[in-house]
Structures are given as C-alpha cells and as structure tokens.
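Query structure, 183 tokens:
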C-alpha cells in the first residue's frame, strides 16, 4: 500500500500531496507508450531499409502489405488500449498490441541473436514492451483491487522491467558496435 494511504489509515496527516498518484499514472502511461513506440520504431528502420534494399515490394508485395498493416494495427491497438475501460477491451487491445510486436519482430530483417536469446537486445526490448503493455492493461484493476494483489504484481513486474532496461543498455551498446563493425 502507498505510504500516503498508510499514514491516512493510522490517523496521521500525510505530507505527501494527493496529486502523487495521478502524476505516477501519467508518467507510467508516458513511459509505457514510449517503450512500445521505441520498440516499433526500432523494428521499423531495419525492416523498411532492408525491404527497400532487397526490392521486397515487387518480390513479396503481400508480406510488405502485411507488415505495414501490422505496424498500423499495433500502434492503433496501443492507442485504443489507453482509451479502453472494460476488461474485455483492455485485454483485447493489449493482446493485439503484444501480438503485433511479436509478429513484427519475427520478420527476417530483424537482428534477434536467437542463438543467445538470454543476452539479446531484441528479446529484452520485446519483454520490456510486453510488460509495459500489461501494466497499462491492469491500471484500472490496480485501483479497484482492495487486497492490493494487482498492485503487488505491478511492482514486481516493473522491478523486472527495470532489470530489462539495464540489460537493454548493455546489449544495445554491444549490438551497435557489432552493427558498425567493418567487414
């Protein structure tokens, strides 16, 4: 439970302003949207540049159209997730956004380092993005849960996401050096 609520429950007037919760929510929404947006943009560059270089539009027009629709659909699902209020729609849009990220990331143009998935920048980024999508999807459940189970799940998952962000920093630097290595 939050420190402000604990102080109020014990009868002590809290010095923590009541706006902290809404600020936390706004920053969380901003962070989640940024992480998912960066993941989408991070996958868009290699896909588009390699599709152009290999003339995929004439060789595989259906796949190019499908990938474009996946980018649009994933972005739209994330926008609708922010606006959804019922559990059904939040679950639906969270699932669509997450599936879109995974299918986009499964394209052959994406460097995944599959043989070493446990130290892969791609897998860390997808995992962090999926955790951010899940966090947005459970926000209303966090506020409605009187036993704080969802709040505890949220805390644990965001601690794990923080570790993934640290891993992103290390693996991203390594992959950039690999990317720019002279051949």
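Result returned for the query:
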């Amino acid at each position: 439970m939050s420190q402000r609520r604990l102080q109020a429950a014990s009868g002590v007037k809290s010095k923590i302003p009541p706006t902290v919760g809404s600020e936390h929510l706004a920053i969380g929404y901003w962070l989640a949207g940024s992480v998912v947006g960066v993941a989408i943009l991070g996958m868009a560059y290699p896909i588009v540049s390699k599709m152009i270089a290999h003339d995929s539009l004439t060789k595989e027009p259906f796949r190019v159209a499908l990938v474009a629709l996946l980018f649009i659909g994933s972005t739209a699902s994330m926008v609708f997730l922010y606006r959804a209020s019922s559990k059904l729609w939040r679950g639906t849009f969270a699932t669509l956004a997450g599936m879109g990220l995974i299918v986009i990331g499964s394209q052959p143009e994406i460097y995944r380092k599959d043989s070493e998935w446990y130290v892969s920048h791609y897998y860390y980024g997808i995992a962090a993005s999926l955790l951010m999508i899940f966090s947005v999807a459970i926000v209303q459940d966090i506020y409605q849960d009187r036993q704080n189970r969802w709040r505890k799940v949220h805390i644990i998952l965001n601690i794990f996401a923080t570790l993934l962000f640290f891993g992103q920093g290390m693996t991203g630097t390594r992959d950039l050096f690999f990317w720019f290595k002279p051949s």
